[in-house]
Amino acid sequence: MTLSLDKALDRMRRGSQLVLMHSDCAYYVVPGRRVAHKDANKILARPDVFPFDGGPFPGHPQSWKMGAA
Questions:
Q1: Which tens digits make up the pLDDT trace of 13-67?
Q2: Contact 33/2 with Cβ under 8 angstroms?
């Protein structure tokens, strides 16, 4: 089961992060649940979402937060 776009955004407004898990190439809101790729892409396109952690490879973020960068 995946989080809806609205629920994922609500959790991110409360401090959760969107994380790309490379083990299964899926996005998750942490804490929370999996987010559909189409909804993750909508979240990533928002101007108030920014990379939080560079991840293991330079230039390839692995987690994002909502708010001011």
A1: 999 999 998 778 899 999 989 999 999 999 999 999 999 877 777 778 899 999 8
A2: yes
Contact present, 30 and 17 (Cβ < 8 Å): yes
Which pTM value belongs to this model? 0.87
Task: Tally Cβ neighbours within 10 Å of residue 46.
Answer: 12
Determine contact, residues 27/40, Cβ cutoff 8 Å. yes
**CA-based end-to-end distance of the chain:** 30
Q: Say if CB 12 and CB 27 are below 8 A apart.
A: no
Which DSSP state fits 24?
Answer: T
